Amino acid sequence: MNIAPHISAEQFDIRDFMRLEAFPHFLCPGCGHGMALRALMWALYENNISMDDLAVVTGIGCSGRLGAYIDANTFHVTHGRPLAFATGLALARPDLHVVVITSDGDCLAIGGNHLIHSCRRNVNMTCLMLNNEVYGMTGGQVSPTTSATRYTTTTPGGNHEPVFDACKLAEAAGASFVGREVTMQVPTLKDLVSEALLHDGFSFVEIISDCTEIFGRKNQLGDSAEMILSQKAATRPDSYGSKVDTPFRPNPLPTGVLARANRPEYRANLVPAKQKELGGG
Amino acid sequence: MSQVQRQNIQGNQACALGAIAAGCRFYAGYPITPSSEVAEVMARELPKVDGMFIQMEDEIASMGAVIGASFGGAKAMTATSGPGFSLKQENLGYAAMTETPCVVINVMRGGPSTGMPTRPGQGDVMQARWGTHGDHPIIVLAPASVSEVYSETIRAFNLSERFRVPVIVLFDETIGHLLETVELLAPAPESLDERKWANGDDNAYLPYGETEDLVPAMARPGDGFRAHTTGLTHDERGFPTQDPAIASRAVARLLEKIELHSDQIASYQTLHCDDADIVIVAFGIVARAAQRAVKTLRAEGIRAGLFRPRTLWPFPEQALLEAANGAKSLLVVEMNAGQLALEIERLCAGRGAVHRLNRIDGEVIAPAEIADAVRQAAP
Is B133:B251 a contact under the CB 8 Å cutoff? Predict the structure, then answer.
């Protein structure tokens, strides 16, 4: 397979930023998480973020295992809690770049409370939520983003619950940066992640990933190439605007930067209160 | 400012001031009766020392944020009670497994579940030791006065930093809200323990390597070690493993780490145990009632003594056995249905009767009740 020519492979070698001693990795063949990881590493490289100053906090699930492969300060914490841990770390160490890697189950189900409050607080960190519509690590159970009628081991008759739109949720909760992209376009995803990294405050990026082995197989969605192509086909890039030009552009899933607000970062609001306390007594 | 401050304050306030004196610079918490004053004092005082206070969205997030701040190098603490303490357990286990220092204050209230939020209890003795799943190390301290809440909170930070283990400070609502005039002794800077940080050759560094004291040095983010931290059972490099020999050693070291240093951790007080026929075992506020009971009983000619553990876990076993050596029986007094009694019975099996006096009604145990129980128990 030919690597897309616009990937400047001669400059960016992902192996320079990985813990090669942790390989072989444990992801399944066809899993989209590797492409998400590549986009992140590439964005870090482009922004000259030193691995020494990078802290990656991950939760539990397939996405949670990505941290072990990144040659940075990596923290694989408890299920659903990476945003809580990251909040403490980012507040104690504002000099670090804090990136959270989480997923649909980790972030929207068990960790949902931490997501909405992280959006509201606006502590400086980047949250990448890898959405593959399923609990892959535990064998393929339904998640808050599993599409309607999809089969999982806990929805043997097809999923009957409505889904969360993670980006709408994040925006409504006050996130100052919200974006979404599929894994198929790694350079586009890299650019989005890069913007999120540079954002001063809490940035949330939903990455549509594919679980080929478990979710795809059970729902006859084809191999990895087919899955990421259909994911791409379902998107509506922000360049389309809000137009849904049925039947030519019927695609329901907006991608790109979906929300951006100039809100002061958590600490910016904190300082005056501190000074007042010190002066006033 | 003088080194010694005399103040009339309650236990919860003394706890917060002790934490700051110990070097705590990060607090994350969630409001819960009867511990909320700890958070309120921290919110007011921490910014004055360039510390960070944050009220999180729930108890679980508070514990997570505390551990996250500790990853970054801050001495960090949270405070809670009953239901909140239950919610801390998952992340407490994570801190134990990853050897991340942190201090958790549990101001005990009455009853299981929501129980009696404004009443005292001592029902979390076993939960403090075994609340999180799996075999894990933990240290639990039990101060008995406002002044001791201050000094034991300082000791909690020192032990936590020295041994890289979560430390729980357990006291009840009575002490939390008790007003006493105390002298707040600012600890000498050299008396404060600081974590062993990794330095030198990063190629030779093993984040969870075997050392003589069984306490590995921690990698501070930004210092170039780029370590991996996980709650998964890990090898010396910190990477997940399922190798039986490595997994076995990894958990064994965590437990041995505390065992090896138990003499540094143990703390207790004895009163008239030398010639005692009966030794009362009590901690926290109950021990103060027991102290009075001993005085009353001695005046009557009944040779009663008191053993008061300041460290509940690991329990000061040797000290108890020595204190109870000449006694014919023991009386364990606690505001629960009999939790510490189980440990005392285990330790003193075959050495004489272990009697119990318990209350689970949200009332403190009065000196007269203890004296009565001793009179009934005494041969």
Answer: no
B85: left (phi over 0), alpha (psi -120 to 50) or beta: alpha
Confidence band (pLDDT; 50, 70, 90) for A100?
A: very high
Looking at chain B, the number of H-run helices and the number of E-run strands are: 13, 16
Looking at chain B from residue 211 to 230, which residues have their Cβ under 8 Å from any Cβ of chain A? 219, 221-230
In percent, how much of chain B has pLDDT > 70?
99
CATH number, residue B117? 3.40.50.970
Q: Residues of chain A with pLDDT > 70: what percent?
A: 88
C-alpha distance from residue A49 to each of A36, A76, A91, A122 (Å): 17, 20, 19, 21
Report the distance separating Cα B18 and Cα B58, nearest Å. Answer: 24
Q: What is the mean pLDDT of chain B?
A: 96
Which tokens belong to B21?
């004196």
Residue contact B68–A87, C-beta within 8 A: yes
Q: Which among B137, B170, B191 is the end of a domain?
A: B191
pLDDT recorded at residue A243: 58
Whether B239 and A91 lie within 8 Å, measured CB to CB: no
- For position A240, what pLDDT does the model report? 63
Domain membership flag for residue B129: yes
Q: Under CATH, which number does the domain A14-280 receive?
A: 3.40.50.970
Residues in chain B: 379
Confidence of residue B200 (pLDDT cuts 50, 70, 90): confident
> Which ipTM did the prediction report?
0.97
| Domain end point (choices B165, B191, B217) | B191
The domain total for chain B is 2
- Say which CATH number the domain at B285 has: 3.40.50.920
Q: What is the mean pLDDT of residues A66-74?
A: 98
Q: Which of B349, B321, B312, B355 is nearest to B130 (CA)?
A: B312
Query: Of chain A residues 114-153, which have a CB less than 8 A from chain B?
Result: 114, 116-117
